[in-house]
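Complex record, four chains
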Amino acid sequence: MIRFNNDYSEGAHPKILEKLIQTNDEQTAGYGEDEYCHQAAGLIRKLCCNENADVHFIVGGTQTNLIVISAALRPHQCVLSASSGHISVHETGAIEATGHKVIALPDTDGKINAEQIEQTWLDHIHDESFEHITQPRLVYISNPTEYGTIYSKKELSEISRVCRKYGLYLYMDGARLGYGLCAKGNDLDLPFIAECCDVFYIGGTKIGALFGEAVVIGNEELKKDFRYIIKQRGAMLAKGRLLGLQFIALFEDNLYFEISEHVVALAEKVRDIFAENGYPFLYPSPTNQQFPILPDAVLPALKEKYAFSTWQKFDADHTVVRFCTSWATKEESVAALREDIRRLPK
Amino acid sequence: MIRFNNDYSEGAHPKILEKLIQTNDEQTAGYGEDEYCHQAAGLIRKLCCNENADVHFIVGGTQTNLIVISAALRPHQCVLSASSGHISVHETGAIEATGHKVIALPDTDGKINAEQIEQTWLDHIHDESFEHITQPRLVYISNPTEYGTIYSKKELSEISRVCRKYGLYLYMDGARLGYGLCAKGNDLDLPFIAECCDVFYIGGTKIGALFGEAVVIGNEELKKDFRYIIKQRGAMLAKGRLLGLQFIALFEDNLYFEISEHVVALAEKVRDIFAENGYPFLYPSPTNQQFPILPDAVLPALKEKYAFSTWQKFDADHTVVRFCTSWATKEESVAALREDIRRLPK
Amino acid sequence: MIRFNNDYSEGAHPKILEKLIQTNDEQTAGYGEDEYCHQAAGLIRKLCCNENADVHFIVGGTQTNLIVISAALRPHQCVLSASSGHISVHETGAIEATGHKVIALPDTDGKINAEQIEQTWLDHIHDESFEHITQPRLVYISNPTEYGTIYSKKELSEISRVCRKYGLYLYMDGARLGYGLCAKGNDLDLPFIAECCDVFYIGGTKIGALFGEAVVIGNEELKKDFRYIIKQRGAMLAKGRLLGLQFIALFEDNLYFEISEHVVALAEKVRDIFAENGYPFLYPSPTNQQFPILPDAVLPALKEKYAFSTWQKFDADHTVVRFCTSWATKEESVAALREDIRRLPK
Amino acid sequence: MIRFNNDYSEGAHPKILEKLIQTNDEQTAGYGEDEYCHQAAGLIRKLCCNENADVHFIVGGTQTNLIVISAALRPHQCVLSASSGHISVHETGAIEATGHKVIALPDTDGKINAEQIEQTWLDHIHDESFEHITQPRLVYISNPTEYGTIYSKKELSEISRVCRKYGLYLYMDGARLGYGLCAKGNDLDLPFIAECCDVFYIGGTKIGALFGEAVVIGNEELKKDFRYIIKQRGAMLAKGRLLGLQFIALFEDNLYFEISEHVVALAEKVRDIFAENGYPFLYPSPTNQQFPILPDAVLPALKEKYAFSTWQKFDADHTVVRFCTSWATKEESVAALREDIRRLPK
């Protein structure tokens, strides 16, 4: 079985594992207050060109989302998200479990835009009975989106401008941020993101770490007492250095971007394989998730050899599937896929 | 100013007020454990033909909704509602504040149907990552709906059947239930509703009471410890008899239905006034809320004499407005409206 | 049966009821935005000598407590309360249901003091693992306390000083505030309370109203978006004027203090009846709740004629009971009690 | 610096790390649905002699506590815990953040007993206003306790009997369970615990793992939909196999008990060092945490060479400190301590 079904099927990138092994016997403070976490935070601050940012390390993405959002909101406030946003559909109501509504905005290929946000804000605030509806206070976007698409500098700065105009926090979920930053056509970089967003996270789990997400908080209002909330939600890892160490490995020698570039390059090959054989795609993704639309007839054979996700029915005879690449995807797997797709009955 | 803007502008129907005055000096137990509450509950049980139903009295509708729903669900479970449902849009996220997501289903004139519910359930349960999405457990409908429309026996029993098939609780918000039951074309009655729904409430606030909603729980699973939840949510009225007394007044001599019939009859006149003058309606409401679509040009003059709600823009030159009738609406107010609408420039 | 069991057994004081009757047919805006609410708020601001205070009207005490507290706190913050505080023991965990821990401090006759608060704050903040424990942010006191005792000017100003020193909000639950202000030995008044507390409420339910508590917010930080929270918790009464009207009745002609003085005077008589016959008291209450310690042997006979609460066992042969007076307690009831207590076997 | 300050200062036991390294390149399903998790669950079921138990793996202890407890309770229900219980004091109100009160019972050396639980239950249920107080539904104990003490078979079975008598769930926090099971004087074992408790967890983080706790659910009522709650609370690890692998390493060859025995043996040596030199202890702990009471005068010198926790002041001149041993504690560290304590001025 050759696996293209997700980007977290294997353990960690060898360099990350090595770092854990090397330091295994050292004694450090617990709960993220060790030297490795401090060092990793410093690396990230530097890459973001924001020496004052607070950086916290958290084990997983849903955890990170619920902590950031519940730390930022008062009880009557809500989040705006693309209707396909991870918090909106794939976290078992984690945000609602902290008491807050997620308002789902219709998205275009996974993205929302400044105009929508402004209109939603105005609709809420100018409503005759505005106190009877939740008050938008935070905008959640993910980059890349759930559909693998990415925001441009122009789009992000417009969203940021609208958010600041109306006092909305902007939060970017960067579970696969590296893949976005290394995508063809991308013009974003970490300093620009750090400037536009009040808070965002750089995902490790899906980019070669065993686990771990690095939250970067730029807005002073959101910094206060953040570690209390991490603890309260059960997310303060006792051996917190495991997080610091992994992010050192990812960022001390550019490994994060090396992995990301490699993975995106493989994804482009996967995309080309389907494109060259005439299969269309549901979304124009330049990142590590590809969504080709395949005839139902070819699926059974393909499934015997490859693992991939069934995304949704497209029409009576076609299905959208998802192929992911990861740091562990092998060139020969892609080559095999090339052969097999070429041979499919047209 | 003649008010058609809502159905809670005045105090209580005189017979209700009289009951409160008569009993004012009596000493009773507190917190809904008095004789009047017991008597009112008995009257309602009888009208519902369900001697085993639990009946509780709560001050307001949002309170009732959040109590019923949070009492019924485990943390990971969610509610299905019409996208126009009161809990979905007009309760400042009260349900989410108790930890639960409200899934908004597209509605037709405010109503959802059995097929949608079934499809949503199946989509959730058959999803590959079903544990990553909330689990539907309760279906919320209102009758009449937010748009004044009503469910038929056929529609309600189909919904009920689907709910039972999949283990979903069915809950009806009856804030304006009387107007639904007295609407032309209605074929529902209290016993039928009590049979189809696991829990529902009979609204008092909008049908002549000072305040008060009567929750009727038929499903044994939902009965347990309900009063604890009422207290926890701050909804256990110290002088609970005030609720019992009002519902006795409403139900001992059929007052609830007398009021409802009268109010609906007035609403029909209001509807006819607009219809006869060629104005269309946004929704086909047979109850006490009417939604005519008026040219923007006529609104300023109309607003000087009448209070009514601005519902939404219809197109560049037209606006949907809402006219409500209530127990206190006077025949002469309707007559005046007739004259004024007739005189509007066509 | 002569009832001394609580202060909410009857309906409303006649002057309050009269106000409701007089205005019953008037049409007003809903949700507390009517003229009566504005007028009542103005009266209260004036009595508190704080023209900038925000005043909101809420139906019940538990509701008020959970709204005020959840509006004031971030998720990791907690409340300090006397261990006998209403929020700590008698609200079915209503505060915890909004996500916040209540830290119970040992009390003396229901009261806590500045030193305790300071020590608790310092203990929390100086703890090695301070982020692993909740952060105190609000101090809850009630006046009179659950045991009928009252705070002095000196005590309250010391508490207020400590709270301001450490950035803690001070909140007074005044469910029976009038009885405290009219007690012998009291030196507090509304302006002093308004100055010392960031927020407090003046209780109506237990001082002659049908229901209703008036929240007075002095601290700017606590004012923002308060009505959203009221709505979210299901506490925004549709016919909100009912609250405004009752507080006008209570405060336009000093009725609140007339009732309070009368009730306290009756309570003093009740206290003297027990004292003169040699019965001791569990708490030195100068307000409308009295806690005599009676021999178990006399209880059965007493219970046949009088309703009162069994508070707790005192020792093998004695029980503490609670006698309350209210606006509706009659002089002849007190006289009867005098006779019956005198005749008890000594 | 020789560290005795806690049991999570280092990475993982070498055998655990080795397992992660060996399997790093394998591709598995995510979210705990891989073969390793299944295998680890099987090993634990077998050791517990309960083939029907559900076993789930979660990253950390606070997370586990909040998931288990919020999954088990309805909104009005509360937990009984020792006042020193971890959930009561050291989780930043994590349980309250899920909506539930923790009732703190006075403990004896960290333990609570059957009689207390019964009395608390009866007090709640027989209270006149029982619906105004939270309803106890789950009893939380930890073994070893926060003070290192352990429950006996007799104590645990009495607690279990009372819990079943009144319908209370019994939940044991086993963050350091191995140390309890290997303590001198212990008569508990896993099958007995599995029989007495409705749910408990076997801690990995503090017994040699990088992280991880294994929840064992015996009671059918608590099994349903448990994975939804794990996901909702952000605790479903993407690379879930990391948890399965570690628990395989701990339980396939008895490593868990080997580590535990070794650590306890070292702790006994530490205890003897202090005892032989005449220092008393605050608690009679037979496990890996020791609480000697030292003169303040000796602390500064000791702190230069050793890391240990300051527990609390004992009296004007003495302080209680905590020394922990762990899988990584070296014999030579203990020997050094022996010399240094012997030389302290008496």
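Note: Residues 255-276 of chain A form the longest helix (22 residues).
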